[in-house]
Design the sequence.
């Protein structure tokens, strides 16, 4: 057993070494910066990525040789990536159903989010939920799947949602904090607390907007993924911030769209360690702002449509504590306006690493492919309607049409949410009865069963099914 493990380790190490060597070669090619080399360069990126994909496939083939799964290796959902990918959320726990749009009380979103116990939250209603005060997720182990809602699903307004505990899987949640929120509300805040971390959290395919502080704040947290999420139209301090006064590390910020946030695109504070991979930052005044002492990977990101920036560089260091110290950065293949390499603060030269700082499972795609990926994939999605609500759809059309500016003219352009009919779930296990009958022959399976014994409960597999729709 030990020998097998060491062998596996050696294989993993050699795969990683190959990858880093590839990156080094690419870096040296990139530093030549000759446009006539760009085709060759892109080909090399593609070859590198294809090789990584092959390695990944052969790894997964090797690991599937065993018929038993290792529960510690089961991802939050099959295509979960990044440092938060092993969150187990509500797996095997009870089902709580959001049955109304009330601020609080039985059947409300608040009652489910603030409940104790391992739980899966599904939604039977569509429309706006107007909060009178913040929702605080203080108890661990929750999965929220907003794609269970009919129509365009729910949109939360009026106050912040805070994740102040560990092990959560949040997918297809839309928050538009909006004009009735107090001044310091993030749309979503992940903050463990003064003396503890929020850890193992994955937020995927969500829509976070109109925050009166940031749209997304992450602090006192570790092993977190934010992926495929739209972060738009802040009304306070900016798009997203990581760090800020508390140690925050192993954060994967990947394949997100930040649009119409004039600042913090993104902002990384002291004590923060983040990998920023394949994100798009569109329509901003101030691009990336990084404080001394932070550590980050900045790989394959794109910035477009900058207006009136007072900032000297796209990737800029803010020397808040006086002299820059202790920061480390791996910066590779980032694009500005689709063609040129982004300019990087020369202060960072002494801090550049030749290896990824927080290497995860993520194989970046080339920055030239990020725009198309973002337009196709991001945001809170709903299988039973056209996909995105009209507000999120308008943001993607701004990108497609390369709109110059819109965020000051219609500050609160809330979507019209289609209602739709919820699916029938007579046995209250969160699964559509028709799905159960088709897949299992009857209704006997429930939220705790695992029909095919692959480690995912039947309820989780129903969620995955919805997300393929
Ligand atoms: Ca904040
Ligand atoms: Ca059912
Ligand atoms: Ca059932
Ligand atoms: Ca299963």
Sequence:
């Amino acid at each position: 057993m030990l020998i097998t493990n060491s062998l596996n380790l050696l294989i993993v190490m050699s795969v990683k070494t190959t990858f880093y060597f590839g990156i080094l070669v690419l870096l040296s090619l990139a530093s030549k910066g000759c446009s006539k080399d760009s085709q060759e360069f892109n080909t090399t990126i593609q070859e590198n990525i294809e090789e990584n994909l092959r390695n990944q496939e052969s790894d997964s083939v090797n690991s599937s040789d065993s018929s038993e799964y290792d529960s510690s290796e089961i991802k939050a959902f099959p295509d979960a990536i990044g440092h938060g990918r092993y969150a187990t959320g509500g797996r095997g726990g009870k089902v709580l159903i959001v049955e109304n749009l009330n601020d609080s009380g039985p059947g409300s979103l608040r009652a489910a989010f603030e409940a104790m116990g391992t739980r899966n939250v599904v939604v039977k209603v569509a429309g706006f939920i107007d909060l009178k005060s913040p929702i605080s997720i203080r108890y661990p182990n929750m999965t929220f799947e907003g794609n269970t809602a009919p129509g365009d699903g729910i949109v939360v307004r009026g106050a912040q949602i805070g994740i102040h505990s560990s092990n959560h899987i949040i997918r297809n949640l839309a928050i538009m904090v909006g004009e009735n929120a107090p001044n310091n509300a993030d749309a979503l805040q992940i903050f463990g607390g003064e003396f503890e971390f929020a850890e193992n959290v994955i937020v995927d395919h969500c829509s976070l907007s109109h925050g009166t502080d940031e749209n997304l704040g992450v602090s006192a947290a570790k092993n977190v993924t934010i992926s495929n999420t739209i972060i738009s139209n802040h009304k306070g301090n900016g798009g997203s911030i990581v760090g800020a006064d508390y140690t925050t590390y192993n954060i994967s910020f990947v394949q997100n769209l930040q649009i119409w946030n004039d600042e913090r695109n993104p902002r990384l504070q002291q004590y923060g360690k983040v990998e920023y991979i394949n994100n798009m930052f569109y329509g901003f005044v101030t691009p990336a702002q990084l404080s001394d002492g932070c550590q980050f990977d900045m790989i394959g990101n794109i910035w477009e449509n900058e207006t009136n920036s007072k900032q000297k560089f796209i990737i800029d260091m803010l020397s808040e504590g006086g002299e820059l110290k202790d920061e480390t950065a791996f910066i590779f293949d980032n694009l500005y306006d689709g063609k040129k390499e982004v300019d990087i603060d020369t202060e960072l030269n002494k801090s550049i690493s030749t290896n990824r700082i927080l290497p995860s499972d993520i194989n970046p795609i080339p920055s030239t492919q990020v725009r198309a990926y973002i337009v196709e994939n991001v945001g809170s999605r709903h299988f039973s309607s056209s996909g995105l609500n009209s507000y999120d759809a308008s943001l993607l059309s701004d990108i497609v049409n390369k709109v110059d500016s819109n965020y000051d003219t219609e500050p609160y352009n809330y979507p019209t949410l289609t209602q739709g009919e919820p699916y029938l779930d007579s046995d209250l296990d969160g699964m559509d009865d028709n799905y159960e009958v088709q897949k299992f022959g009857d209704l006997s399976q429930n939220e705790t069963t695992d029909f095919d014994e692959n480690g995912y409960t039947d309820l989780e597999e129903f969620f995955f099914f919805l997300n393929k729709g």
In short: Residues 2-32 form the longest helix (31 residues). The pocket of calcium ion (ligand 1) is lined by residues 186, 189, 213-214, 217 (CB under 6 Å). The mean pLDDT is 85.
